[in-house]
């Protein structure tokens, strides 16, 4: 979702359908899903959980709930929008970097060099981001950049 979707889109639907008022009759927290499907090492329990809340008190409740089951702990985002933006940037960064590696692989093939050999050499630098060419997986990775673009266009 784009930064603001929870409060701008979801909360009004909840209020309209329930007759209740957010911040008075119910409170809202948000925590993005961060699972990497098929990854046996980075699981729900071992990935730091980003949490947020409509108020500091709600944030503490959401953090306590997730903190009781996520061994890696929680990161308290200062707002729901920050938590939403974190998810968007995580997925966009992954999408862009894999696309970049795919482009490099095409170039290296035309030059006649092995992409894996280039990545192995590049990987010897401490701050090299080890992305590999291939497909981008997951239902949200390919669409998250468009959510952010939508919001950016809306804001001008």
Automatic annotation (TrEMBL):
One of its GO terms (biological process) is polysaccharide biosynthetic process. It holds the Pfam family UDPG_MGDP_dh. InterPro entries: 6-PGluconate_DH-like_C_sf, NAD(P)-bd_dom_sf, UDP-Glc/GDP-Man, UDP-Glc/GDP-Man_DH_dimer, UDP_ManNAc/GlcNAc_DH. Residues 82-156 form the UDP-glucose/GDP-mannose dehydrogenase dimerisation domain. One of its GO terms (molecular function) is NAD binding. Gene3D superfamilies: NAD(P)-binding Rossmann-like Domain. It comes from the Bacteria. Belongs to the UDP-glucose/GDP-mannose dehydrogenase family. This is Nucleotide sugar dehydrogenase. It comes from Staphylococcus nepalensis.
């Amino acid at each position: 979702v784009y930064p603001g979707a929870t409060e701008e889109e979801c909360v009004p639907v909840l209020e309209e359908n329930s007759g209740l008022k957010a911040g008075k009759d119910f409170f809202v927290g948000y925590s993005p899903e961060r699972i990497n499907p098929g990854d046996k090492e980075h699981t729900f329990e071992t990935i730091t959980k980003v949490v947020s809340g409509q108020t500091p008190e709600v944030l503490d409740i959401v953090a306590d709930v997730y903190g009781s089951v996520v061994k890696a702990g929680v990161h308290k985002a200062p707002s729901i929008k920050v938590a939403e933006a974190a998810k968007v940037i995580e997925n966009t960064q992954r999408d862009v970097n894999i696309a970049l590696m795919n482009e490099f692989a095409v170039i290296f093939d035309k030059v006649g060099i092995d992409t894996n050999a280039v990545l192995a050499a590049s990987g010897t630098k401490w701050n090299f981001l080890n992305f590999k060419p291939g497909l981008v997986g997951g239902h949200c990775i390919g669409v998250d950049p468009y959510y952010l673009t939508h919001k950016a266009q809306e804001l001008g």
